[in-house]
Amino acid sequence: AEITGARLLYDCLFILLQTVPAVLHVAIPATMQHIDYQLETARSQVYRYTAILEKAANDPHMRAELQPYMLKEALYNIRQYEVFLQIILSDIITGAQEVEMMTKQLGAHLEQLKMTIKSKTAVPTSQVFPIFIALSTLWTSLQDETIVVGVLSNLFTHIQPFLGAHELYFPERAMQRHLNGATVKTDVCRMKEHMEDRVNVADFRKLEWLFPETTANFDKLLIQYRGFCAYTFAATDGLLLPGNPAIGILKYKEKYYTFNSKDAAYSFAENPEHYIDIVREKAKKNTELIQLLELHQQFETLIPYSQMRDADKHYIKPITKCESSTQTDTHILPPTIVRSYEWNEWELRRKAIKLANLHQKVTHSVQTDLSHLRRENCSQVYPPKDTSTQSMREDSTGVPRPQIYLAGLRGGKSEITDEVKVNLTRAVDET
């Protein structure tokens, strides 16, 4: 009966455990296909925005009509959308690898269980039970992967409308009108254009340049600004162009920078701090650039998602801790306790009797020869001092009296009156 039950359980487990992997093998490729299609659509929009901005940079009339600020904001937004889709796709690929590995382990455990109970009339529990435990663990892990794939698929579905919002601000007809005469280039095409233009190391004695053939793990270097050209971004007021590592990677203060052309590399190398400061100030005005360009080293309180998943957290600035203490007063307000208050009725009765008895008592005093005039007192008095002060001064001044005489006011025989004015007032210094 035991071996029959084990075989029956094996048949049920075989059917049940094969269901979830089959669902995942269908759901994961379908989700990846949708994400790949959406990524291509987003990248196509990025290339068109970049081509229009490059054309507007050389055409002042088009720049005044186009308002490049809005187009750059749209470029940053869709670049963020592209990065987010890449993160989702990377998580799904990781999940697909986990599912593939667990499927192989599941097949191995089922085959082991089949061989254990194949032709035996009785199987010890110690041989079968560990296999059932391992199958249970794999089943739980597959269920978790199913949930993760479902969450990522729902997340991808909910962010799809964000790409359609660009059509409201930049209609297709307006985009085609601005694209007339402009060349739309992909990121791969831009890299191929300058593949042969390489930095001459002899032109820079104090700077270190890295190249694929001379640097180990060249593809694993942590490039600043997510691989975008820092000089182009600073010189064109925020245009994002991918850098080309084949031109040469500049190592400056233990950080690595790529550029989209040889001229951009030479210009940046002349004064790196200047362009780094411009990028930092631009990111302060457009905060979405902090995560897009991975500026967590300039803004250390923010960390990119790609680095948060790493086990090594040496790049995170440690949180400073210190011991502190505070003390609160027991009674903040002044006390309002009435000390003379008594709630005990018998105590009040006792005090009342005491006061009544005091009114009936007479105080007597007795003075003896020993206590009479035992204390000697003396005092010193300062006699008043006669002093005088003068607080007012009497003085007078004589102002001369004005004496002015006018003659001829009564007129005469002639029609014109001749008036004569005589001033006989004495001067002040003569008085």
From TrEMBL:
Name this polypeptide is given: Cilia- and flagella-associated protein 206
Function: Essential for sperm motility and is involved in the regulation of the beating frequency of motile cilia on the epithelial cells of the respiratory tract. Required for the establishment of radial spokes in sperm flagella.
Pfam families: FAP206
GO annotation, cellular component aspect: axoneme; ciliary basal body
UniProt entry keywords in alphabetical sequence: Cell projection, Cilium, Cilium biogenesis/degradation, Cytoplasm, Cytoskeleton, Signal
Similarity comment text for this entry: Belongs to the CFAP206 family.
Species of origin: Mandrillus leucophaeus (Drill)
UniProt-listed GO biological process terms: regulation of cilium beat frequency; regulation of flagellated sperm motility; sperm axoneme assembly
Localization, UniProt: Cytoplasm, Cytoskeleton, Cilium axoneme
Main location: cytoplasm
